[in-house]
Write a structure and sequence with these properties.
single chain; about 375 residues; alpha+beta; Phosphatase 2c, domain 1; five-stranded antiparallel β-sheet; elongated
């Protein structure tokens, strides 16, 4: 009788399709078949106590556990209401309800369920996309690690003691460093692509390839080198439709002399006794990939190294690393740690600095990639 009364209430509603089940033992089977967006359940039914069916409909493994459930009862009883809600009912109506109210509640709960289904579908698509991106990031991360200079390569550079370290904040970092030896000269580069993630990692790989290609092609003029490199990266950045760019400093070492070009962090020069000098690179270049023509911004500085002198390069992931108080590690602290330990090998200095940086960060979140290169004249 209740089923027929409700059917009549809904008969003129074109957007509501009414299905009726008079046997509670078949309720789950029929619900699985018709996939309703709302279930109306009368607490008074043959063969089964009404609240028991609510429990079945809301069981963890039930296909109806998320479908909105409106309980119909002949009484306005607080205890019955509380029990129904405790078991998972979404709404409670005393029968027979007014048709306007019933239809409004059906539409309200139905729309909520449809939104829930859309959210679930979006989450599934996001999970699939995340798995795909994770695989892409993993490949890019491995490629980055593969092309970093190897210790055995650095050991065969006769006049320099070199140690490098790079650690990404994410699966793929935007930091770049490389040390390349070619026909008696050494090319050292350090840079920082804006942001991190897949795009930044790809651009880092592009820069490494471009630097190596230009070196192999015997491009020795530092300004032309950076100009060609910039136009190469700019073209690819435009094709990628991204706004990424990078700071980049290149050092050319030959016969105890370093030629410095490109804009990045301040370069730390350390003399044999531990005295520190800083070289500002702001006037030596322009962010790579930001503009097509940067030739007018390019400059060069020359540094002479004696035995025991050296250079320390870094990215802002070191100087701007934060502790729980929001305090930066800072350039001053980096210079002090380097100066105090300059009598040690490049590898030992690198390890001490990185340990000090990580001690400063402690358990705080690492927000940026960390890169450090220590170079000492033998």
């Amino acid at each position: 009788m209740i089923g027929e009364a409700i059917r009549r209430m809904l008969a003129n509603e074109q957007d509501i399709v009414f299905h009726y089940c008079d046997d509670p033992t078949f309720a789950l089977k029929i619900a699985t078949q018709v996939q309703p967006t709302v279930i109306l359940q009368d607490l008074v039914m043959p063969q089964m106590e009404g609240l028991l069916l609510v429990r079945f409909l809301r069981a963890n493994n039930s296909p109806t556990r998320h479908i909105p459930l409106i309980v119909l009862s002949s009484k306005e009883e607080a205890i019955t209401k509380a029990k129904a809600f405790e078991l998972g009912a979404n709404d409670y109506l005393v029968k027979l309800p007014d048709s306007v109210e019933l239809i409004a509640r059906i539409r309200y709960h139905s729309q909520g369920y449809l939104n829930f289904l859309k959210l679930q579908e979006a989450q599934k698509r996001l999970e699939v996309e995340n798995l795909r991106l994770s695989a892409e990031l993993d490949v890019t991360r491995k490629l980055q690690q593969m092309i970093l200079p190897k210790p055995e390569e650095l050991k065969i550079i006769p006049q320099l003691d070199i140690s490098g370290f790079m650690e990404a904040a994410d699966e793929v970092g935007g930091d770049y460093y490389d040390i390349l030896s070619y026909q008696g000269q050494v090319k050292i580069g350090i840079g920082d692509v804006t942001g991190h993630g897949l795009e930044s990692g790809v651009i880092m790989l592009m820069v490494q390839t471009a630097v190596r290609t230009l070196l192999e092609s015997n491009q020795t003029d530092s300004n032309q080198f950076l100009d060609i490199l910039n136009r190469t990266i700019y073209g690819n950045v435009q094709r990628m439709k991204t706004d990424k760019n990078l700071t980049l400093t290149l050092l050319d070492y030959q016969n105890n002399t370093i030629r410095l070009s490109g804009q990045h962090e301040e370069v730390i020069i350390v003399r044999a006794g531990g005295k520190v000098e800083l070289i500002d690179t702001i006037d030596l270049g322009f962010p790579i990939g930001l503009d097509e023509n940067i030739s007018e911004f390019l400059g060069e500085a020359e540094i002479n190294l004696n035995t025991g002198d050296g250079v320390v390069l870094y990215t802002d992931g070191i100087t701007e690393s934060e502790n729980f108080k929001g305090e930066f590690y800072g350039l001053e602290r980096l210079c002090n740690v380097v100066s105090e330990n300059w009598h040690l090998s490049a590898q030992e200095i690198q390890e001490i600095v990185i340990a000090d940086v990580k001690g400063h960060i402690a358990q705080h979140t690492v927000f940026d990639d960390i890169t450090l290169v220590v170079i000492k004249q033998k």
